[in-house]
Amino acid sequence: MEFVSAASIKEGVSLLETVADQPGSIQLILASTGPGKEIIGQGDIVELTFKSKQVSQTVASQIKVTSASLADGQGVEYAAELSSVTIQVTAGLSGDINHDNKVTVGDLAIMAANYGKDTSSPDWEQVKQADLNGDGKIDIEDLVAIAKKIKK
């Protein structure tokens, strides 16, 4: 897996710094922005985006939070609950939207027909393979990426 980006998804919590200078490790520093914006209980705080590397066979990969600390307004620190997710990466040709083992104008047409869709689209699960860069939307960057893959 290759780290792409991180973004705060909790209102009032800012992502101040992302450090990804060691392979296999990412450090995020976040802060709430005042009273009433504290992180309390369980919930989603950060959205992490990864993209898989090309694989020749289906493999499983795991993304883990191995250390997480929180502090309250008085500076008292707490260890946050750790979590992990296992992702299955399937072999295939990136950009082969119609699964014919080649990247052609047909794949570009399918992508263009779904242009503008994102993770909030009701059919996202069916079209997300057209999100080549894994940023959660089908946009001009994806169209350009697939256009560069089309073989004459």
Explain this structure to me?
Residues 90-152 form the Dockerin domain. InterPro entries: CBM2/CBM3_carb-bd_dom_sf, Cohesin_dom, Dockerin_1_rpt, Dockerin_dom, Dockerin_dom_sf, EF_Hand_1_Ca_BS. It comes from Paenibacillus eucommiae. It holds the Pfam family Dockerin_1. With 152 residues, the protein is of the alpha+beta class. The chain has two domains: 2-89, no CATH class; 105-149, no CATH class. It contains three helices and eight strands; from the N terminus they run ββββββββααα. The strands form four sheets. Strands 1-4 form a two-stranded antiparallel sheet. Strands 2-3 form a two-stranded antiparallel ribbon. A hairpin with a 5-residue loop joins strand 6 (69-71) and strand 7. Helix 1 (105-113) runs antiparallel to helix 3 (140-149). The two termini are 30 Å apart.
Number of domains: 2
Order of helices and strands: EEEEEEEEHHH
- Structural class, please? alpha+beta
Helix content: 10-25%
What topology, given as strand order, has the largest sheet?
A: 1-4
The total strand number stands at 8
Descriptive keywords:
152 residues; alpha+beta; 2 domains; two-stranded antiparallel ribbon; Dockerin domain-containing protein; Dockerin_1_rpt; Dockerin_dom; Cohesin_dom
Structure at a glance:
InterPro entries: CBM2/CBM3_carb-bd_dom_sf, Cohesin_dom, Dockerin_1_rpt, Dockerin_dom, Dockerin_dom_sf, EF_Hand_1_Ca_BS. By secondary structure, this protein is of the alpha+beta class.
